[in-house]
């Protein structure tokens, strides 16, 4: 005879309670283990260990000052990322990994890192809707992913806090990521950013059951001091999306496998809004000549003066309507004009069909979207972006007839570039060159690769 229903329900509930208790115990054990690791890796503990060893073995006391000096010297190099960091890390494990991916985009000057992983998330879901996708990000506009049904955890950047040290912020980063791993039990972790935070590296180091991927633009330049030398070895795979400019710089030798993919785009061409829809939405006559202007998020350098100059010179052309793209993470713009509209959307590239030409900064996303969606563009490369060589990128595009470039932003040179791009034959030539260069979307390639790893 079978068990009574009441007995069966009680047995299942008891089993669930036992599993829940074991799960909570596992979380507490990992938290205690992280606390112990942080203590053992601290400056005070390590220097205290030297002193204790010398006191236990008195013969070492004469060399203790030199030992301490050597340790301080070594510690400084570790902090600068010039030598491998001394990190004791207890072995951890993802217990019963699920078909889950945790995506960790950082927040740079604009939305590049975030947009690339958002694009990958869309392609993962399209290929396998049952995969759980979780975002952890320093980017504040979480509503973008939450509106698409992705759970998201916000990790504010250290600059948001008063007097917070990098060590304190990295401890927070490690705790948040480790907790997310323990709750969601992912099989794959993907990081998109130029700099691998120590707290993140601590969270993924020696963690069994988790495949770690670094999605990173550009090469690991030899002699670069910004990237800790032991960072790459924490990852099982490095994925490098393509770019127009190919660097010849010597690269760091590393053993982690490298996968090259096509440039990653958020949208596919068929997803773009129609010309009629965009112009109706913005209140622009359908037969107007329309220019789109977007010079960056304004997080590195002051773009206001260049923006006002562009608008003033565009206004010299009658019957030309101007649409200014405003970044979601930038400040609100104080622009007025009878022929000026402001669009604050994400991504603004969905509206590219509504514009005849554009004047934009040469960022990775803007450049590749303009080329793929055949929007004739005058690029004004931002020269203050640090690791992103916008000048090399757009020069390569200009050499292939894919765009125009404006490096000198004075009135005379800017007026000349505008006069050129308003000509229909120039725009037609650029459109033809762009359409002949159609490439696959790297986001699809990355999505397929990640699904195959689950």
Question: Your description of this structure?
Answer:
The protein is an alpha/beta fold and 454 residues long. The protein has four domains: 1-39; 42-90, no CATH class; 92-263 and 442-453, Glycogen Phosphorylase B (Rossmann fold); 269-436, 3-Layer(aba) Sandwich (Rossmann fold), CATH 3.40.50.2000. Helix content is 41%, strand content 14%. It has 14 helices and 15 strands. The strands form three sheets. Strands 4-3-2-5-7-8-9 form a seven-stranded parallel beta sheet, sandwiched between helices. Strands 12-11-10-13-14-15 form a six-stranded parallel beta sheet, with helices on both faces. A two-stranded parallel sheet has the order 1-6. Strand 3, helix 5 and strand 4 form a beta-alpha-beta unit. Helix 1 (5-41) runs antiparallel to helix 6, helix 2 runs antiparallel to helix 3 and helix 6 (166-184) packs parallel to helix 7. The chain is elongated and about 85 Å long. The two termini are 41 Å apart. The relative contact order is 0.10. The model is unreliable at 1-5, 10-15 and 298-302 (pLDDT under 50).
